[in-house]
Amino acid sequence: MAIWLNKDSKVIVQGMTGATGVKHTKLMLGDGTNVVGGVNPRKAGQSVDFDGTEVPVFGTVKEAIEKTGADVTVIFVPEKFTKDAVVEAIDAEIPLAVVITEGIAVHDSASFWAHAGKKGNKTRIIGPNCPGIITPGQSNVGIIPGDITKPGRIGLVSKSGTLTYQMMYELRDIGFSTAVGIGGDPIIGTTHIDALAAFEADPDTDLIVMIGEIGGDAEERAAAFIEKNVTKPVVGYVAGFTAPEGKTMGHAGAIVSGSSGTAQAKKEALEAAGVKVGKTPSETARLARAILVG
């Protein structure tokens, strides 16, 4: 009942000793995440006590993998150091890197994404500027609240952090296989299409909820993919129905120009592919509930 993250995932935290890293490592441990180490070259050899759980600090991602067998890293380092942190994770060939940091320069994101490609895409990048990924009851990597839902049959992929949380809460009685927040920056690693393909292949995901937002054409491309490749029911929501055209809204990627990238255009593309699209998050949740529960 999971894509990319499960109870056996061994997680390291780049930036674990900073204030944000400490806070969220503690929360992740509380959700049952198997956090096996942190990375900070200046504090290598030390450990951090999280309510009785001692988590060692390593000098590099490579060392952390060698010592712990880690297969997931979550990155909480400040934006000016994020590119180097992601490149280090890619060079160490860790299978999954979840980049929480926001405010990263687009050039930096483009640079580490290109670097991953040069290295053969051995590292899946989620983010940047994302809430992370959670497989409820098994593992939680990032900043998604761990207590708002339960394990279940819905797969969720979302550009928006807050809408991720709302959808998880509204459908908490049904529960989720995995929820992935991919981030809304102009350049991201994992896309809607990547998550749709993974949920389609997951035998324990019965329905997919996809949350997009105005700007760009990611949702239109996802609609084309769904039409050709997804057999499971998909329910969608596009944030920004009330946004005025030509105005930048929220995430850096949400820029509307003419009819391209508007919520209505995205809704029409998704509906043409057989996706039921709600006008509000709550209506979207009702659509999902009607399909699964009746």
UniProtKB/TrEMBL annotation:
CoA binds at T17, G18, A19, T20, K43, I100, T101, E102. Its EC number is 6.2.1.5. The active site is at H251 (tele-phosphohistidine intermediate). The keyword Lipid metabolism does not apply. InterPro entries: Cit_synth/succinyl-CoA_lig_AS, Citrt_syn/SCS-alpha_CS, CoA-bd, CoA_lig_alpha, NAD(P)-bd_dom_sf, SUCC_ACL_C, Succinyl-CoA_synth-like. SUPFAM superfamilies: NAD(P)-binding Rossmann-fold domains (SSF51735), Succinyl-CoA synthetase domains (SSF52210). One of its GO terms (molecular function) is succinate-CoA ligase (ADP-forming) activity. Substrate binds at Y165. Residues 4-104 form the CoA-binding domain. The keyword Ligase applies. Pathway: Carbohydrate metabolism; tricarboxylic acid cycle; succinate from succinyl-CoA (ligase route): step 1/1. Pfam families: CoA_binding, Ligase_CoA. Keywords: Ligase, Nucleotide-binding, Tricarboxylic acid cycle. It catalyses: GTP + succinate + CoA = succinyl-CoA + GDP + phosphate; succinate + ATP + CoA = succinyl-CoA + ADP + phosphate. NCBIfam families: PRK05678.1, sucCoAalpha. Heterotetramer of two alpha and two beta subunits. Succinyl-CoA synthetase functions in the citric acid cycle (TCA), coupling the hydrolysis of succinyl-CoA to the synthesis of either ATP or GTP and thus represents the only step of substrate-level phosphorylation in the TCA. The alpha subunit of the enzyme binds the substrates coenzyme A and phosphate, while succinate binding and nucleotide specificity is provided by the beta subunit. Belongs to the succinate/malate CoA ligase alpha subunit family. This is Succinate--CoA ligase [ADP-forming] subunit alpha. The gene is sucD.
